[in-house]
Amino acid sequence: MTDTRRRVKVYTLNEDRQWDDRGTGHVSSGYVERLKGMSLLVRAESDGESGSLLLESKINPNTAYQKQQDTLIVWSEAENYDLALSFQEKAGCDEIWEKICQVQGKDPSVDITQELVDESEEERFDDMSSPGLELPPCELGHLEELAELVASSLPSPLRREKLALAVENEGYIRKLLELFRQCEDLENTDGLHHLYEIVKGIFLLNRTALFEVMFSEECIMDVIGCLEHDPALDGLPRRHRDFLTKTARFKEVIPIGDPELRAKIHQTYRVQYIQDMVLPTPSVFEENMLSTLHSFIFFNKVEIVGMLQDDEKFLTDLFAQLTDEATDDDKRHELVNFLKEFCAFSQTLQPQNRDTFFKTLSNMGILPALEVILGMDDVQVRGAATDIFSYLVEYNPSMVREFIMQESQQNDDALQSDCMSPSLCHEERRVTGLNDILLINLIIEHMICDSDPELGGAVQLMGLLRTLVDPENMMATANKTEKTEFLSFFYKHCMHVLSAPLLANTTDDKPSRDDFQTSQLLALILELLTFCVEHHTYHIKNYIINKDILRRVLVLTASQHAFLALCALRFMRRIIGLKDEFYNRYIMKNFLFEPVVKAFLNNGARYNLMNSAIIEMFEYVRVDVKSLTAHIVENYWKSLEDVDYVQTFKGLKLRYEQQRERQDNPKLDSMRSILRNHRFRRDARTLDDDEEMWFNADEEELEDCEAVVPPSDNKITKACGGAGENEDLMDPISKFMERKKLKDSDDKEVLGKSSSLSGRQSPSFKLSFSGSTTKTSLSSPPASLRPGSPGSGAKGSPPTAATVTTKVGLVDYPDDDEEDEEEVGGESKEETPPLSKKSKLSS
């Protein structure tokens, strides 16, 4: 790589026909073995001599390269992949262009090497064998012939290229514009219509060199004049030039000393006007023919932002006048609008350039200036300042948060220098209202005081506040945590401002003001508070409980506006969904379900969003929140017991009774727990060694009545036992079955009450632990209820028959109690096979 490196920016054209910045580096050309040819290489300048490759592109002999504006080289590497190199110096562009032309065997004086579009071999041969395109004389009598020539050349890329070269080399554009002035003077309508078609066709040639002539100061207004006379308008020309010269006025709020910058601004505005207003909407086939026009405007905007950004005197004067109290309102309005447009231009920049742009504005003091502007009474000025603030928040919320906290710290330091006591300092800050002049509090106040009936500005500001308090975009460093610091600041200095309208409007049992605009504002505030509940667990919990916010919010369920009542319900639902016992105790202590129940009853049997939202909340409580279930049934059951079109409230009562049953019968609950732990403590598929021995033993071997009992079963290890020992074994089983009978009778009573709820029959089955004396003879009863744990008995002892028979009803519980009941029943079912197997052994 012996070529001198040149500084360039690499751009790619995206799907929206916008140029994306891929980085800055140094370009060189050389032979690349892997690509088997001469190639363009761009290495990132930030990585030094051996920087990473931003671009490695082989100079293909068939690729069409274009040189634009002396510092741009543009080409396409695939059907939808366009590339551009923007050079810092013209000399670098010329050098690389010569290399490209040398590889392709082209004259470096051309601005485009060739076209890539394929044509038929016959047409290509005819075009290549014919000499250059000859234009008719530029006279009034030949305008029709020229218009036909332009129209016939546009479909063919090669003919289009030859036409562009002919128009460029012969200085044809200026001659055409001279004819335009003559036709206007003579009111030659036909000539003007032909000129319209000719100039429109020249735009579709998509050539930068022609645009530079057409958009020059002396030509652009005549070009716009040609495009006023569309034949489709029936002789009624547009008045674009009148608008640009008389209506549209360039306001130089801060004197621009650079004449090149001023000319570039004028040119960009007029070319943008041509693209948006003058040229007809391009067809699908013509759209790609105007890609160079899009690029022309894009690079002009980038250049304007860069030139303004580099002019420190200009920006210093701008911010000085913005914050100067002596600046009159009209002047300040113009300054703010300029700054707004300046920020809007920056949106065309790529991330790296935009980062530099906003850092420059931050260093110049844009946030203090915005704070001054937002404190003014002019609604239009405040609206423009809000738009500027939104650009800053969307770009870098951390920068805005840092400024806000620094501002608060400065105010605190100023007060502490005057106050001996911190408590007095805090009181003075409250009395003097220093909290209220913070930038973020100004934003909150503008949201609250939005005069728009639809609250369009308030919605925008609420979105900005949400971005600022969102922990997801807060950074954590080794020295500090932005989330902790900013949220502590926000809840100390700002939350009272945000919640003030809510607290002021909910002092009674119903909203003090219930008009549409107030309800919309309260809904916005509730939306932000709901967001805080979801994302600020600690800070918002303290605020809600200490300020009794939920009780105030639930007053809004009495609003005549359904959307506001639903916002209040959603706020409470988010709190309950956290399953936080601090919140639950707060709700129970203050009986905060009362306004919800009242709203449900007032809604009646109407099937609407209010009805569904409240039922869903109670259903969630029934399934997941035990403490609130008991609270609701004990305090509001009489009001809800008649609601039978859903099973939610009967389910709540049933769940409550199940909880009470557990509390009243701790031994039964303990037995269930023991049984459940006993069965599922190990893998159900794994058998003990003793169980394996029993199942694998032959029947003849087991006739000796040698019982195999696992060590866990009461440590019974004797092979045969007496009758007294058998009675001891059966005693706990008999007691358990008696308790089971008692429980079953209770369950039947509960089922009788809730038969309409479950709608299912209670299945029953028979538990049997015995063998009949006529059919089976066991030496002893089973020592365990588990399969594979047969009982023990002595040979020759009197046969003992133990028969325990009962009916067990399974209650269809909606929660885990159903599992408990089915587990006990399942265990009983499992007991039958080993017992029946043993009954055959004693015969």
UniProtKB/TrEMBL annotation:
GO aspect biological process, one term: DNA damage response
Stretches with biased composition (Polar residues): 753-782
Region feature Disordered, mapped onto this chain: 740-843
One annotated Gene Ontology cellular component of this protein: protein phosphatase 4 complex
Molecular-function GO terms, alphabetical: protein phosphatase activator activity
Regions of compositional bias (Acidic residues) in chain numbering: 813-825
Superkingdom per UniProt: Eukaryota
Domain named WH1: residues: 1-107
Pfam families: EVH1_PP4R3 (PF22972), PP4R3 (PF04802)
Composition skew (Basic and acidic residues), residue ranges: 740-751
Annotated PANTHER family: ATP SYNTHASE GAMMA-RELATED, SERINE_THREONINE-PROTEIN PHOSPHATASE 4 REGULATORY SUBUNIT 3A
Similarity remark: Belongs to the SMEK family.
Biological function: Regulatory subunit of serine/threonine-protein phosphatase 4.
Name of the protein this chain belongs to: Serine/threonine-protein phosphatase 4 regulatory subunit 3
Origin species: Oncorhynchus kisutch
Gene, per the UniProt record: LOC109876147
